């Protein structure tokens, strides 16, 4: 058994490293593959053991360090390997609980999503260290990187002024500096949850999923999550690096609450006519326009604070008696 766990971990680590390194090609498809880098580690964790996932994370980090640069050992572990290992470990965490199905209470999916959000935000914050942990160094580093990217895209040499007709370069860069860290937290949360869901689906299809599939529309967040979100939002308006870090974590949690909002929508539309149209239209609106996710976040926050699903369930008329 231990040999199988080790072999699976080595194979998963090699696959994860290849997915991570594919971004070097610069193609659009390679970016998608890059975001799937945690998937093999999560599959190893959920399908075999968290020890297998740990081996996978270390193998992937070591391979990238050997074939690319030593820097990638720590970068991969912090950014992808260890967060994926921890989520996989929590996914199979259980304890005896009388009255629960099978007498076992599994780690709740709502808590897994909150962990994914917090880890996503912390990974983005950790990346700030490459620029410096003060506001000016951080923003200056981002400006330099965005200028480099714009020069590459516009084919402007380094010894020439950065000018693009019809574009205020300075304003564009300042906008990117303000928005990209928040977007990074949102994307990190979404990709972590997506990879966790994909891994569980794959392992379930193979018949190796040990825990029963959870009822996702009924998931709930820990009670303190709403208060934490409110505090982070308030602190995000503070100037300096503290406000930036709080804003990144708040953005990550906003994505988590957006997913909770979808869970609420799935729960409230159960058994109702037009459910497919409502759900399909909502998903399409979020994918096409983006901003409707804010509405789902508001629904998620409201449900966490006031139990929308419980109130609607209590408001339903009782079922007619059977004859």
Structure write-up:
With 323 residues, the protein is an all-alpha fold. It folds into two domains: 92 residues; 209 residues, no CATH class. Helix content is 72%, strand content 2%. The chain contains 13 helices and two strands. The chain has a two-stranded antiparallel ribbon with strand order 1-2. It is globular and about 70 Å long.
Can you tag this structure with a few keywords?
mainly alpha, single chain, 72% helix, 13 helices, globular
What is the CA-based Rg, rounded? 22 Å
If helices are DSSP runs of H or I spanning 4 or more residues, what is the number of helices? 13
Give the CA-CA distance, first to last residue: 56 Å
* Silhouette: globular
Strand line-up in the sheet with most strands = 1-2
Kindly give the count of domains.
Answer: 2
Contiguous low-pLDDT stretches (5 residues minimum) are none
The helix/strand class is mainly alpha
Helix content: over 70%
Describe the structure concisely.
With 323 residues, this protein is mainly alpha-helical. The chain is 72% helix and 2% strand.
Question: Topology of this structure?
Answer:
Layout: H1 2-21, H2 28-35, H3 38-47, H4 50-67, H5 71-91, E1 94-96, E2 104-106, H6 109-128, H7 135-154, H8 169-206, H9 224-235, H10 241-268, H11 275-289, H12 293-306, H13 308-315
Antiparallel strand pairs: 1-2
Helix pairs in contact: 1-3, 1-4, 3-4, 3-5, 3-8, 4-5, 5-6, 6-8, 6-10, 7-8, 8-10, 9-10, 10-12
């Amino acid at each position: 058994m231990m040999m199988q766990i080790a072999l699976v971990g080595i194979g998963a680590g090699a696959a994860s490293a290849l997915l991570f390194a594919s971004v070097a090609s610069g193609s659009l498809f390679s970016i998608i593959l890059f975001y799937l880098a945690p998937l093999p580690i999560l599959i190893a964790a959920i399908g075999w053991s968290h020890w297998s996932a740990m081996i996978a994370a270390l193998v992937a980090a070591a391979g990238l360090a050997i074939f690319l640069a030593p820097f990638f050992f720590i970068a991969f572990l912090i950014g992808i390997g260890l967060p994926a290992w921890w989520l996989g470990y929590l996914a199979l965490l259980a304890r005896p609980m009388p009255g629960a199905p099978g007498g076992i209470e599994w780690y709740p999916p709502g808590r897994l999503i909150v962990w994914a959000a917090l880890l996503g935000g912390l990974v983005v914050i950790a990346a700030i260290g490459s620029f410096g942990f003060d506001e000016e160094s951080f923003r200056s580093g981002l400006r330099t990187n965005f200028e480099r990217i714009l020069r590459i895209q516009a084919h402007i040499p380094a010894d020439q002024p950065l000018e693009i007709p019809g574009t205020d370069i300075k304003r564009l860069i300042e906008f990117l500096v303000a928005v990209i860290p928040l977007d990074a937290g949102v994307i990190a949360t979404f990709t972590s949850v997506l990879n966790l869901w994909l891994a569980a689906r794959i392992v379930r299809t193979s018949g190796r999923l040990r825990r029963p599939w959870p009822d996702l529309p009924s998931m709930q967040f820990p009670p303190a999550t709403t208060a934490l979100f409110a505090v982070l939002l308030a602190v995000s308006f503070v100037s300096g690096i503290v406000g930036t870090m709080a804003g990144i974590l708040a953005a990550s949690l906003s994505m988590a609450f957006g997913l909770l909002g979808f869970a609420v929508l799935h729960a409230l539309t159960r058994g109702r006519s037009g459910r497919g149209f409502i759900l399909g239209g909502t998903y399409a609106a979020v994918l096409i326009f983006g901003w409707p996710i804010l509405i789902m976040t508001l629904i998620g926050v409201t449900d966490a604070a006031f139990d929308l699903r419980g109130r609607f369930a209590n408001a339903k008329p009782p079922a007619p008696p059977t004859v």
